[in-house]
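Exercise 7.
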Amino acid sequence: CGIPRLQRQLALCYSHMAAVRTQNKTISPQQALERLETLCAKAERCSWELQRKLILWKIETEDAAEIMDSLHRRRFVDDARFARAFARDKSRFQGWGRRKIENELRLRRIPAPAIAEAISEVDQQDYTDKAAAVLARKAAGMERPLSYADRTKLMRFMLTRGYEASLAAELLRQLQ
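Solution. The predicted structure, written as tokens, is:
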């Protein structure tokens, strides 16, 4: 069914419309700073996301640098703190593996040392338990013993969720 695809297309359309509305308005550097402070107060943000917003709002380069410096100085934004929160939340609530979390943080242009620190802070036992729960939930409707095609499907699923191949293989052996 094409409903999820339609929902994604609508979301893209709405985000584009919002971007067009914002482009037509002139935003002063002070207004941009206040908006970014509000965003950062509501949830953790990374520098890259905020810089994208400044570009969208057509803030001059010098003003954007001053705004970002102010946000960093007053600790509204901290990429290492963002990386730790992102890794913890994605692992715990969305069931993402370390590889997927690492790739997403790279896409957000988080420095490599901050990524490594965030990944290392994910508790190993919770991580393994979550991986086992994700695998068990996916395999719940499959007949036992698992066929080769089902094991392959489950392995591919775990790899796309960002789990290491060795962990996925071990959990699959335990599932049999």
